[in-house]
What we know:
Helix content is about 30%, strand content about 20%. A hairpin with a 2-residue loop joins β3 (about 50-55) and β4. The protein has three domains: about 10-50 and about 220-300 and about 405-465, FAD/NAD(P)-binding domain; about 95-210, no CATH class; about 300-400, Polyamine Oxidase, Chain A, domain 2 (Alpha-Beta Complex), CATH 3.90.660. Mean pLDDT is about 90; it is low at about 1-5 and about 460-474. By secondary structure, the chain is α+β, with helices and mostly antiparallel strands. α1 runs parallel beside α10 (about 225-230) and α1 (about 20-30) packs parallel to α15.
Amino acid sequence: xxxxxxxAQGLRVAVAGGGxxxxxxxxxxxxxxxxxxxxxxxxxxxxxxxxxxxRGLALDNGQHILLGAYRESLRLMARVGVTEKTAFLRLPVxxxxxxxxxxxxxxxxxxxAPLHLLVALLRAAGLERADKLALARFNSAGRWMxxxxxxxxxxxxxxxxxxxxxxxxxxxxxxxxxxxLNTPPERASANVFLAVLRDSLGASRRAASDMxxxxxxxxxxxxxxxxxxxxxxxxxxxxxxxxxxxAHDGDGWLVTLGGDVPAERFDAVVLATPAPVSAALLxxxxxxxxxxxxxxxxxxxxxxxxxxxxxxGTRLDLPFYALLDDPAAGRWGQFVFDRAQLDPAQDGLLAVxxxxxxxxxxxxxxxxxxxxxxxxxxxFERPELASPAWTxxxxxxxxxxxxxxxxxxxxxxxxxxxxxxxxxxxxxxxPATLETAVRSGQAAATAIRAYGALPREKRSLSHADGAPSxxxxx
Length: 474
């Protein structure tokens, strides 16, 4: 394997956690010439974006949409052999509600940016002139201020400040905010929301705003091919192996698994486990109390996905639609996907997503699934959708952190040499997305490279000698 000059050749690195961040870190470290061992407690790679088997169907624990702006995710997928055409259905940016209802129909044509958005706005059905003018004003203001506020506030406050209409908020901004940040606009960070808009709707390339709907299970998009790529390059991937503890040992680290397995020594460690797990592993280490407390202080929001199986041949006219949610009226669904248009093996299967699902997750599963089926029947004016053959509700209780204004997120570097963090919760201007996880994994690998470039006698010094504790390496 060719290793570019200046890379961290020869380091033995343990990566704890085989989600998207851990797999990204492992691939980048391997590319730099490190010898990598990837530990994953589950029997499959993928972390919180993983596959599950339901009645013989390969489903995901949550339906995802990626953006064309997710350049690092797409680049790493290609590196481990995943082609975009096989992996995704690419659609121009759109927010389309079931016809005949109280929604709107906004769909961009395949034209250069920003012309594609202008044409979409002019053609948009279901928006009044005042709504369109408000949207145009917001877009112009966002570009003028560089898609960033000097002082963060909530998304609701941002929209009020720029005189967005009630209808536009209900049909566009609220669902976009909940889908992107998994946090209601009343509590969501305006600056993080603006960063997502900057790299999608505000991007200079139209393709950045495209929506990418996975055709493959989430594990097959990146984590599983990454594991196979690592094994093919001579690295070690251990499934069903939970890291029980880590301990600083001179200029290296001892990694201990459960049971009677002896500790193994590594030159460096990447903690790519969920924030609470990383906090527990850090708790016994000197000088990390503040960082562990910061990780423990992160609060989380759930995401629920309801799969509904109908008779073969049951179809929607489009691959996905937005839905108008109203929890007070028992309307929980926010987006519905026709799975057969992504995977022909899932004929008649629909998937409905409920983000920021704290209230919905408290309902009995059967009650929530029945309410979602009734919502589909009403919105599409198809009574048969109220009676699916079966339903499967999957709720990821800690799907993402609460993305609130001014939230200080930990960086990749820890106070201890050779120990770095990776995860979608680390410092970044994005919310907790797959792209954030991948970028964090890459940043962790960059930090390890800098550490490995030090003379061995200096590796036992604190990171504080070279970079501030908690700083993010980008």
